[in-house]
Amino acid sequence: MCRKQTQSGFALVIAVFIITVMAALGAYILTVGGVQHQTTVLTVQQMRALNAARSGVEWVTYRALQAQACPPAPIAAFKPVAPTLSGFTISVTCTESSHKISGDNVNFYLISATATAGVYGSPDYVSRHVQSLASGPAA
């Protein structure tokens, strides 16, 4: 009879061990799933930030080439109209230089745009910087 009591106690130890291992495995799976979800969300946000910065560069490039001069400062108040880019703040700078090439005056525009969303230091903060060089005839 003593053996049966020892064996039933041993089964209880095995059962507690299996339950503990299964709980730890479940917690690990939940953690990995959460990390994968957060990584996907941040990847999408980074692509949106890149597109927002590109839209800022394109907007200022268009304005500079139409006016044959950099737009007057401040141009940092650019807000994209696309709903997928709402929530991004885009800072744009334009630097102009004139050069004589083959007897023609040509303006060069160095345009930089930085798109940000979120608060710096927070896990959901994203920022992307894009730079472009455009040229056109001088006025």
Question: Explain this structure to me?
Answer:
- The protein has a three-stranded antiparallel β-sheet.
- Helix content is 47%, strand content 28%.
- It is α+β, with helices and mostly antiparallel strands and 139 residues long.
- A hairpin with an 8-residue loop joins strand 2 and strand 3.
- The longest helix is centred in the N-terminal third of the chain and has 66 residues.
- The termini are far apart.
Provide key terms for this protein:
alpha+beta; 139 residues; rod-shaped
Number of helices: 1
On the 0-100 scale, what is the average pLDDT? 82
Strands of the largest sheet, in order across it?
Answer: 1-2-3
Q: Using DSSP, what is the number of strands?
A: 3
Q: Quickly give the structural class.
A: alpha+beta
Level of helix content?
A: 40-55%
Biggest β-sheet strands, sense, barrel: 3 strands, antiparallel
- The string of secondary-structure elements, in order, is HEEE
Strand content: 25-35%
Uncertain residue segments: none
Shape: rod-shaped
- Nearest-angstrom radius of gyration? 29 Å
Question: How far apart are the first and last residues' alpha carbons, in Å?
Answer: 106 Å
Task: Please summarize what this structure is.
By secondary structure, the chain is of the alpha+beta class. It contains one helix and three strands.
SSE inventory with pairings:
Layout (H helix, E strand, L loop, with lengths): L1 H66 L21 E13 L2 E14 L8 E12 L2
Antiparallel strand pairs: 1-2, 2-3
